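Continuing the series of single-chain predictions for the mutant panel. This is the parent chain; the variants come on the following pages.
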Amino acid sequence: MINVKSYSDFKSKMSNSGKSFLLLYKSGSEQGSCALNNIGELADKSNIYAADINTVSDIHSKFGINSVPALLLFNKGQYQTVVKGCQEVSFYRGVVENSLFDAKPVSNGVKKVTVYSTPTCPWCTTLKGWLEHNNIRYTDIDVSRDQQAAYDLVRRSGQQGVPQTDINGQIVVGFDQNRLKQLLELA
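Parent structure:
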């Protein structure tokens, strides 16, 4: 893990090729220590950066982050999404190794696909398997661990159930293959 001292320090160290991750945390807090320790299990990854907001005050505002810990995900130097809260080592490993997916490129650019799910939801597992089978890249957010994401999702969709899929701002509630195919432009 590479510690950064400022936004400019992070930008100068971050690779503009492939995936990079930045953990924003607050030292001295239980959640911050939890996230730092769990991410630390992946310390062999050279693309993981960390910043303590007690000493680094200019990064979180650049990305609109108002609560920590938060793991920011970057692809080719571009900010993609955030995973908030302390997660289990296995969750972080999945995100770092292979769970950040970007949808297939289309004429107007890359589709951003985010799946909101819980670990105990069988339809969530089915949806993610379907997306992977169709080579659709996505970000998975576990709303059982991220209360803010759950709140935002209910506010946007009016629904509490999962799975919910956000495709470039369009919400699909449940595993509605026809709607997913339409939004993802699958034949």
